[in-house]
Structure formats: C-alpha cells, structure tokens
Amino acid sequence: MDDSRAARLVQGVLRCYPVRWRRRHGDEAAELAALLIRDGTPAGSIVLSYLAGAARAWLTPRPGRRLSTVACALLAMACSVGLSAGLLASAGPARAASTSSARAPAPPAQCRTSAAGPVPAVIAATDHAQMIIWAAGHGRAC
Amino acid sequence: MTVGRRDGRAGQDVLRRVGEASVLILISLAGGPKHGYALIQDIKELADVELGPGTLYGALDRLERLGLIEPLPAEDRRHPYRITVPGAAALRVHLDEVERVSAAGRLRLQLGGI
Known about the structure:
The structure holds 2 protein chains of 2 kinds.
Chain A: H1 3-14, H2 19-38, H3 43-59, H4 65-103, E1 112-113, H5 120-124, H6 127-137, E2 140-141
Antiparallel strand pairs in A: 1-2
Helix pairs in contact in A: 1-2, 1-3, 4-6
Chain B: H1 20-30, H2 36-47, H3 53-65, E1 69-71, E2 81-83, H4 85-112
Antiparallel strand pairs in B: 1-2
Helix pairs in contact in B: 1-2, 1-3
C-alpha cells in the first residue's frame, strides 16, 4: 500500500471517532499514523488499532453524554409524536371514511358530521388517535 | 485526585484495572513529558511492547480523566502529556504491589523447587 493511499485510509478511519475526539486528537493522530507508517508499521495494523479505538471512544461513558442522549431521545420522541399527530389529523378522517365505506356503504365524496359520537373506524383506532381526531376535526369525518 | 484517599483507603492500587498500556504510559511519562509518537517509541524500547495508536489515545484519555496525567500546551500538532502528582503516587503504589506479588511468586517457585 503506498503512503498516500494509507494516509487516505487512516483519514477515513479517523472520521469514525466522535467529533469531540477528532477536534482534540485528529491532526496529531493522522501525523502519528504517517510517522508509524514511515517507520515500517503496517498501515493495516494502524487502521485496525484506530478502528478499535473509535469503538471504545463511542462506548466509553462520558459525563453529559447520557443526558444529551436522553435529551435527543426525548426530542425525537416529541417530533415523532408531533408528526404522528399531524399525519393522523390529516389522514385519519380520510382513512376513517374509506374504512367505513368498506364496512358499510357510506355517502361518497361527501362530508358528514357525526352527530352523537365518532365514526366506527375512529372507534376502532387507539385512544390516542381518537383524541387527536376529536381535537382536530371535532368528530367530523370527511 | 488524591490516590487512596478518595474512598478512605490509603495506598489503594487505582492502576490495577486500567490495563497494561496505561501503566506503561505512566512509567514512560515518569521519565518526563512526551507526546504520542515519543511515548510509542519509548515504550517499545522500555518494555518491547508496540502500542497501537488507537490503544495509546484510549489510554491517554482514560488516564487524563482519572487525573493521573495532564496535557501540556500543544507543540505544533503534537500534544505532550506529563504525569501528575497523584499519577506518580498511583504508579508508585502499583509498582510496589507488583513487586510484592512478584516477590511472593518467586518465593513460591523457590519453595516448590520448580
């Protein structure tokens, strides 16, 4: 393996490390690899060593990482719930209409208002979806 | 970090579980501050052990988190490290422990006539 190819390979492996690690050690690590390759250390063993090191760097618990992970997970959950709510609010009534038409003939291409309660398909949905549909459409399926 | 005083036990060997690479790095740094490449070269001469660069940086991060070494201002792209006072104390305790076990092992070999 020529030096430039080995250097590219090492650079690629160094990208596997967390950003924080790369900011701190990245340049030095690349230079160290170049020096070791120049001294005759096989590039493959350097790459393997950095790969194992990258795995360790990700797996090592750090203060703050757990909190940020939880924060990210909560944010993702919040986005997911929001997105689901949006989709259900927009697609739920249409689905309800199509499902109810499969179960029983319904007036086609018409908006109808449920007088006393939700439409049957909405009842079959989860409580959560029901709540969203009720909130969004006030029991109206279109 | 005060070695052996954090949990009230004097002389506790905090290096027992950090691994051979970390101990070798501390031994190397006991001879003066060094950066990554110099550490690898020194440890190769000292113990005939070739530390991989990934292992080296992992051990340096661990030792720094434990307060046993500290980074010095960067020279170009290289970051030298030096052993701290608690690091030196921890190394002394560990080497004493290794020596004690080693002596016990030698004695048993002698007594066993092997």
